[in-house]
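Check this:
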Amino acid sequence: MAQILIMEDDIHFAFELRMLLENEGHSVEWTKNATDAFTALHDTQFDLVITDIFVSEDGKMVPDGGTKLQGRLRADPKLSKLPVIVITASRPSEFSPDYGTLSTALGAKAAFTKPINVKKFIAKVDEVLGD
């Protein structure tokens, strides 16, 4: 059983992810923004972080909150090795960057676009956790 932190501002999607992961036997904590996630990361030892790219912070949308969290993780010696899986609703276009590619360049183990393929997602979680 792994300890997993989800950073996701969509409460419904967060609930679905939490139930999915708990049904796989994992313990899950949920935060809705990067500030709360970083606090949780210093209070609890997690095995995996699953983060959205677009999150709200203090009631305002932060378009790259997930990548900022990844940057903060990599800069923190205590958390720099913590694996990250990114989930985003954003699809690359001529007006929007490819956040999945950006996230993996920042060290994410995988990036998924919503709606996620549940079987592939669970397989990647298991792979990252070494299950």
